[in-house]
Design goal:
This protein has a domain at about 45-145: TolA/TonB C-terminal domain, CATH 3.30.2420. Helices cover about 30% and strands about 30% of the residues. The chain contains four helices and seven strands. The protein has helices at about 5-20, 60-70, 75-80, 110-120; strands spanning about 25-30, 35-40, 45-50, 85-95, 100-105, 130, 135-145.
Length: about 150
C-alpha cells in the first residue's frame, strides 16, 4: 500500500525535473483560412559563441579602458577589505549592438560584482558581431579588473 504513493511521488519528481530542464517553446497564435486559430512554436534567437567579426566596444580597448576609469565607483566595502581582482561578466551583444542578459559568472564579492554589472549595463552600444557580413547575436564574456590603489 505504501509503494503506490512513493512511486507516484517519484514520477511527479521526474516530471517536474524534466519540465525544468526543457522549458516549453513559446507559441505564436495565428489564424488560418476558415478562421481557426493555430499555434506554431517561435524559435529562440540564435546566439553564437564565435563570429567572423566579434563584437567590440566602440573605439576599441583604449576607449573601453577610458570608459571604465570615468565611470567606476569602487565600493567602500571592497576598499575596506582591500579586495581587488577580476569579475567575469557574460552578456549577449545583439544584432544592433545592445547588451542583453548581463550576469556575473565569476565574482569577488564585497560589492565588486554589483559594480561590474552596473558598468556593463551602462556601456554604450557595441559594434555587433558579424557572420558572412550579417550582424548576429554573440555571447561574450569579459573580465572587469578592479585594483584598489592605496
Amino acid at each position: 500500500m505504501l509503494r503506490s504513493p512513493l512511486l507516484l511521488l517519484s514520477l511527479m519528481t521526474l516530471a517536474v525535473g524534466a519540465a525544468a530542464q526543457n522549458p516549453p517553446a513559446v507559441a505564436l497564435s495565428t489564424t488560418v483560412a476558415g478562421g481557426a486559430p493555430t499555434t506554431a512554436p517561435v524559435p529562440a534567437p540564435v546566439v553564437y559563441h564565435a563570429a567572423d567579426e566579434m563584437p567590440s566596444f566602440p573605439g576599441g580597448e583604449a576607449a573601453f579602458a577610458k570608459f571604465l576609469r570615468a565611470k567606476i565607483n569602487y565600493p567602500a566595502e571592497a576598499l575596506n577589505h582591500g579586495a581587488s581582482g577580476k569579475v567575469h561578466v557574460s552578456f549577449v551583444v545583439d544584432e544592433t549592438g545592445r547588451i542583453l542578459d548581463a550576469k556575473v559568472v565569476k565574482g569577488l564579492g564585497f560589492g565588486l560584482d554589483e559594480e561590474a554589472l552596473r558598468l556593463v549595463r551602462i556601456m554604450p552600444w557595441w559594434k555587433p558581431g558579424r557572420i558572412g557580413g550579417q550582424p548576429v547575436r554573440v555571447a561574450y564574456t569579459m573580465p572587469i579588473v578592479f585594483r584598489a590603489l592605496e
